[in-house]
Write a structure and sequence with these properties.
Blueprint: E1 13-14, E2 31-38, E3 48-50, E4 60-65, E5 68-71, E6 75-78, E7 90-91, E8 94-95, E9 97-101, E10 110-118, E11 121-124, E12 136-141, H1 145-149, E13 167-172, E14 177-184, E15 192-195, E16 215-218, E17 224-231, E18 237-241, E19 245-249, E20 285-290, E21 295-302, E22 310-314, E23 334-338, E24 344-348
Antiparallel strand pairs: 1-2, 2-17, 3-16, 4-12, 5-6, 6-11, 7-8, 9-10, 9-12, 10-11, 13-14, 13-16, 14-15, 18-24, 19-23, 20-21, 20-23, 21-22
Length: 355
Amino acid sequence: MKKIQIAGLTALTLLGSLTTSQAQSATTDPVGYITINIKGHGGTSTQGITVPRISLVGQQEYSSSTSAFTRGATNILTDSSAAFAVGDYINNTHVSHYIEITSGPHAGTISWITASAGGTTLETNDDLSFIADNSSYTIRKAFTISDLFETIPTALTGAGSQSSADEVQILDASTGEYSSFWYKSAGLGVTGWQTTKSTATPPAEYALFPTDGILILRKQEADTSVVVTGSVKLSDTLTEIEGNGYNLLSPLVPVEQITPANSGLYTGLATTGLTAAGSQASADEILIYDPTSKSYISFWYKNTGLGETGWQVAGETTTILDPANYAFPKGSAIFVYRKAAQGFTWTMPKTFTGN
């Protein structure tokens, strides 16, 4: 993975500094905040669209090394040095925390913690038995809908129905379907966060996977904004790109460092990265929503046909003269449109602060 270099995190307001802790305690990352600017419809349509990047992560709550990962009826992490309490890192029966492998060839692998019986073990959502014994790992709390937009939102507008309320939408890449979260502030029944997602988790407590992107539909004319506080992730992240459709992803880099060329999405092999082709219609695409033109900008890799090969751009060709090195806006999530049935694992770049 090619590193992305800037002089410092000048685009992010930092609230703390990096420190180191011993095993069995949390390591403190640089902490800061980002402002998510949410577009209103401006009187020209029925809703404004924002596709923001939630580029920070939740705080570390534990770090150590594991004796073993095993797969059986459940996926088990065993940490002989741990003394977990029953129910640790679980919100009742709902996922709220995840583990991330931080050493070895599979560093950056993330999985939900699904159960905690106490003692030296935790259950994970995924089979992690391929992880080497004694690998280091950390546990973080995931952001929930109410963490991002408050239990009773002030920036987003609630209403008596989904059609009138601002919506937060999350894409399930495996099905191609969006789930909507909105705040009910009036009408019959219980007020509070609502969702169209089929889940036993209360909507306000729904936890977002750290690489999830979101789409916000603003039904009001005026713009608004929310501030998110969290940690700056200083390591690569492995995330799955699903085949046969769109993936909405939030790169965990809070500054303008990522470009098509250094993103790592194109590897030259269609089995490990984006598929190149002679035309946009046949190639995989990276799409960025442009709130000014209210349209999507598409980047794709050309490897054959007339004209120059390499990164191409469609949608804003008159202003983006160097598509390979175009810096994705720090406030924007990205869509990866994978046209092949087979997905791949993307090593999402880390925030880099060196010279």
